[in-house]
Amino acid sequence: MGAMEFRRLRDEELQEFKREMMKAFQKGAEDVFGPIEQTILPEADIDKSLSTEGSAAYVAVTDGEIVGGAVVVINTETRRNSLDFLFARAGNQSRGVGRFIWESIERTYPETKVWETCTPYFEKRNIHFYINVCGFHAVEFFDDRHKDPREEGEHGIGVGDECMFGFEKVM
Is 119 left (phi over 0), alpha (psi -120 to 50) or beta? Predict the structure, then answer.
């Protein structure tokens, strides 16, 4: 893999960005549970994040190809920001793409006081990444008895038992 570039998502790349993110999330769940008929990350969830006030989408590009990306939501008043999505394109995991994206996000938003994100309980690769690579701390566990107050209705991805870890990184 050649040198990576980190930049804002371009309008003409939006459909590829969403498609590759959805594939990456699908693969993550299927690596644990086997083939799954339902869509793990619906496009509507990505659209909701992208339409949130303060949202920004970024891509990591190598040799003109999107190899990963992220969506962040920035609150300039509280400086408590959210990493809504981060993905490495399927087939590009464990090649430094996620680390490159995360480090680039941190450099892009140095005024951040706290970053927050979450990931499904079964995503051991993600849990390792957020805690051991990025320096987040698990601060909450969401399940049917303790729902994420930021989520409307049901949460989770529809497989397993719908549990999620909430993470924070104090800067």
Answer: beta
